[in-house]
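hey so i finally got around to running the thing on that chain from the lab meeting. sorry it took forever, my laptop kept dying and i had to restart like 3 times. anyway pasting the input first so we r on the same page abt which one it is
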Amino acid sequence: MVGYGQSGGFEFPLHLTRVITTSRETAASTPQQRAIQLYPDLAKSDSALNREFLRRVKAYQQDNTDFFKNPEWPTVLAKESKVQWMAAARQTK
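ok and heres what got predicted. didnt touch it at all, straight out
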């Protein structure tokens, strides 16, 4: 079982948090911070976007661990999550 930790307002698997966490001086330029800036709901614990993001993290951990080799993975995954979440929201209307 993978542990999760808070980082920048949303949860990352602990082993990935250690990889992407940087000093406060450079935090604004990290992919993690860009993802939050682009999609503020990502930082809201238990928001629909946050839940979709975490669901996708777990899926990639199981099916495509190479995905996390891309240093921009938080931003890429945030965009994928937003697109999926919006599509699901349209289907329920």
